[in-house]
User: Fold this.
Amino acid sequence: MAPRRGGFGGGGGGFSGGSACPSSAFSSDYSRIILAFTALWLIVDLVLACTVASRKKRILNAGHAKESLQWAMIHMSINFMLLCNILFLVSLVLNECGISYYAVTGVNISAIWLDGLAILILYGLILVPVCRQLHQVAGYIMARVVTVAHFTLMLFLSSILISYLSVTTAVLDGIGSRYRTTFALSDARRGLIITFDVFAVIGMLMAVFSIATAMTRSKQLRSGNMAIWTSLLIVASLGLATARLGDNTYSFFPSRFTSDPRGRLLAGTFVTDFFYAMTFLCVLFVASNPALTTSDQNTASAPVEPVAPQTDAVPIPVAVPAPNGETKDYYTPLPVDHSATPPPHQQQTQMYQQPQQQQQQQYQAVPPPRPYYS
Assistant:
């Protein structure tokens, strides 16, 4: 997340307004390695984007249910990282060719925002949809508890990241202005990114515990390809958060005893990009696994159990006219036993006899009340 891949001039001279690159462009080993790394991960991101489209099409053709929000987050994460690598590549070329400093700074700021959002969305995919679906396979009660806890942590991580990106934009856009203001913002920037990475490690530890718990409770998650991809997801997600914490710590707090700081930065860049690609691939194959998609489909189309018929008699009031012109309610209970069903011809006979019986009951004389003797 630190702006180290773009904006480092290895052999280019000062910034100018010329359109042609000087002969000294990409003359240093550092600039060439950075260019090769950026191009490599750009190709990897393109392959991952194509894999996302292929897996999604396979799920739709198989007729499995899919979550639109989850797949939207998957597309956003890989597309943001793809655009980030493209902008870093453009920034590196502009820097080596000595193009205007303000153009390079604007490209760097956009790339840093895309990189941070891609990582945040990937963390959100692991913490909320993936963990919830795994617990839906293992048990529905834990799924709600895990979702609420992980979603709360994601809100906290989002607020810290947005603050960090805003401060980073102010620092990069304000270089050359007041020194004290820029120095104070740089201190705040270091604190924000380290806080974000520390809580990201805590979040991935929570996700690892949640995934491991779901695997122990469900035999379906411990068999076949699902067990392989969930195990790889545990290792990759924890490795991603830990690698970014160590890389950003060294980037903002470099050690004086390191003999090759640029080589250390290159190694950190490669490791963090590798763990991102590995984590994203594991999330993709876990989310598109038939075990989870079938679980979602069964949950959405679960049949509702019919209500058992009531066998108790329910009294129904029947209005009967009295001799004085008033009506009195007499309660006629329904038959209690519904198990024996009469034959069809008896049902038709009862159907024709019911109106006559009701008419006779309606006009039947009501006996006078008995006298009360005190």
Notes: The beta strands are 315-321, 327-333. Confidence is low (pLDDT under 50) at residues 5-15, 299-307. Residues 29-295 form a domain with the Rhopdopsin 7-helix transmembrane proteins fold (CATH 1.20.1070.10). The longest strand covers residues 315-321.
